[in-house]
Amino acid sequence: MAIPSGRPPWQPGHVITLVHVSDPHIDGSPRNTERVERVVRHISGLPGPIDAVLVTGDIADHATVEEYELARELLRFPYPTIICPGNHDSRPEFRKVMLAESESKSEGTGVNGSGSAVNQVLSLDGVTVALCDSSIPGRHDGRLDDETLRWLTEVLDSCGTPVIVGMHHQPVPVGVPYVDDIRLNEPERLEQVLRAHPRVVGLLVGHVHTPAATMFAGLPVYVAPGVASTTLLPQETTAWPPVDTGLPPGFALHVLSGDGRLTSHARVVHLP
Q: I need a labelling partner for 188 at 20 to 30 A (CA). Which of 70, 111, 141, 220 fits?
């Protein structure tokens, strides 16, 4: 069913809270495992209410089956959870372990693999979350292929609720050349879809490993903090790569109010 143009009919007084986690880079090491465990434990212990958890990519660091098996055990939340791949992930292994799909649906090997895009939707009471697979097999930059854009258009056409769109790669530069050089390619293709669907209220991404807020297609864009590490701005460091592994892991809380306003809060989880 096509969505009529104009301002969507929001639900006054209805508040939805989403937790946003990104870039755990689970590699089997005690360090990264502990960081993920502490973030998951902290989020799982929040007094609530929490409606869902989004994890926007780079789940495994080397995209092995063993890493995904560990990720499946670590990323267990007491809330509905939706996860998409990033540039460090492999679609076939991701599908096989994280989504428990058969090998016939998970053909291909290597980082990002050769399988079809892993696009997923989570329907909640009052909001729809559409997570797109922006990975390009064998590369670190991103792109939404034709299949994904068709899928997203169909999801948006059929939604009767506000929609939050998520993916791994950021569609615009955020002032960090280290990751801006490998951001989403051809963002105008996504912009065309988003501008045609007024029910979209925001875009949530990862990839950058630092909390950041910007705009794209007239919508708020929020970049989640990194779990594995934090990327620094050129104004903060001359090191290359500009990555600080000593800062604590983080996550974000996104609050969608009844008038369609998306408010984002960054949090850190302190380590001992």
A: 111
